[in-house]
Backbone:
């Protein structure tokens, strides 16, 4: 309590002694006008007075920036007697040129900005004093509305801006938390209000091109792609090209991707929008298409999908511990019992992914299979995932899943000698070897979205081709 009382006293003193106390008095009077409903004419008249004064002798503005701007807004909007009165007032002063625009424009505020970088050990109080402000100014901000409590959370290297009026009073405080977020305290009629201002980074189309000399990873890095973009590129073409075995020296790639910029500086990477891969004389192109439901996927220029409807293995890293074998002797039952799927050995808890888009038909215990998920796909295909340790959250019978979505975790529930995934691929009820079955292509762009696809894809392909051409020219000249 003592502290607060002390602060109040200091604050009171500042108000009384400050050269800006006139401003305070004016503000109180306009608030009174507001209460009586007579704000418009009162403020407009004040604004005109202020402008007349400035024209004559560049006098100190009598009003806060906010009051002036508000007066100007009101004057501009009001078609009423206030405006007529304004015009007459000015015409009286300056007979020869009475343009209305000049009457309604507020005088230029005389504001100073002071910017500091937060150094180790800095406190808000220390930064205020560096800006020539005392603690009472700081408490005024901290006691204000909004997110003011967050202003005290300073981190080394952040930037803080103070905007002061001619009397050296704080009008605005900005703490730049990072490149895209800042906290801003603005002085309004009821004191300071702190809000978070965030900005979207600018998206700039960037191009990278490269030729493979020793490894794809190295060439991609040399071309300027970060790890995420180069692995994205590999997964886009991973259905057609085996990046472990198929690449040859002299293979080429070119990529059109998004770069995120703030104030002209790169702050991150976005998505790959289109890409080309030239592998052993075969040329592949991928274009990102976002359909009407907002789902994005890569397609070839003719609208066919670049991916298969199924991934070959539902585990990212695994080892095949038992193959599909219609004649197998069962390890526990010790009699011939066909092995209708492929077993992948993996540690308990390894994520299991849906092999394709589909609907969960079954997600519960199933005898010797233990915890099992069965997914129904199109064209009579069903995939089965057995011996799970558990189900991923959100997985329920009847629910939809997308290819690659985590649906459960490896375990050894049911009849199993160790943690592994038993995976089956069934077509019209018949088990097929998951490692050999010919996988169908994923669905192409639907007919009714073909026009939208072309609208999106054509400019991207044109850009990629143009940039690739100049890149090839530059390479040849080197
Ligand atoms: Zn098995």
Residues:
């Amino acid at each position: 309590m003592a502290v607060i009382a002390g602060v109040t006293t200091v604050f009171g003193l500042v108000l009384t002694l400050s050269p800006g106390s006139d401003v305070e008095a004016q503000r109180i009077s306009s608030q009174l006008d507001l209460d009586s409903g007579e704000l418009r004419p009162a403020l407009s008249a004040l604004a005109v007075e202020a402008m007349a004064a400035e024209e004559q002798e560049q006098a100190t503005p009598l009003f806060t920036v906010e009051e002036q701007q508000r007066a100007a807004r009101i004057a501009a909007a009001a078609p009423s007697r206030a405006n007529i009165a304004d015009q007459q007032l000015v015409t009286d002063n300056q007979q020869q040129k009475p343009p209305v625009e000049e009457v309604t424009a507020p005088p230029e505020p005389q504001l100073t900005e002071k910017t500091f970088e937060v150094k180790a050990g800095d406190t808000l109080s220390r930064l205020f004093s560096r800006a020539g402000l005392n603690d009472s100014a700081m408490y005024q901000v901290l006691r204000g509305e909004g997110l003011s409590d967050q202003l005290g959370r300073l981190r080394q290297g952040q930037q803080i801006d103070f905007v002061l009026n001619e009397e050296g009073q704080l009008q605005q405080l900005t703490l730049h938390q990072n490149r895209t977020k800042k906290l801003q305290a603005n002085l309004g009629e009821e004191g300071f209000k702190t809000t978070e201002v965030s900005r979207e980074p600018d998206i700039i189309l960037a191009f990278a091109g490269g030729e493979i000399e020793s490894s794809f990873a190295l060439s991609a890095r040399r071309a300027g792609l970060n790890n995420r973009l180069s692995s994205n590129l590999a997964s886009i073409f991973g259905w057609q090209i085996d990046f472990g075995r198929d690449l040859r020296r002299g293979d080429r790639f070119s990529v059109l991707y998004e770069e995120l910029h703030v104030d002209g500086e790169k702050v991150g990477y976005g998505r790959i929008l289109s890409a080309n891969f030239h592998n052993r004389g075969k040329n592949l192109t991928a274009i990102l298409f976002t359909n009407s439901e907002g789902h994005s996927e890569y397609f070839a220029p003719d609208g066919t999908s670049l991916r298969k409807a199924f991934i070959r293995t539902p585990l990212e890293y695994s080892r095949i511990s038992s193959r599909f074998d219609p004649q197998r002797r069962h390890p526990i039952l010790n009699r011939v019992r066909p092995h209708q799927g492929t077993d992948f050995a993996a540690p308990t808890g390894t994520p299991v992914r849906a092999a394709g888009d589909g609907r969960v038909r079954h997600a519960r215990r199933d005898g010797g299979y233990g915890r099992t998920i069965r997914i129904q796909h199109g064209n009579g295909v069903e995939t089965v995932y057995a011996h799970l340790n558990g189900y991923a959250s959100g997985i329920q019978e009847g629910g939809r899943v997308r290819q690659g979505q985590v649906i459960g975790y490896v375990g050894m529930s049911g009849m199993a000698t160790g943690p592994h995934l038993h995976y089956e691929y069934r077509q019209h009820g018949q088990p097929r070897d998951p490692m050999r079955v010919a996988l169908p292509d994923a669905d192409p762009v639907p007919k009714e979205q073909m026009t939208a696809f072309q609208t999106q894809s054509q400019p991207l392909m044109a850009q990629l081709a143009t940039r690739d051409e100049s890149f090839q020219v530059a390479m040849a000249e080197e």
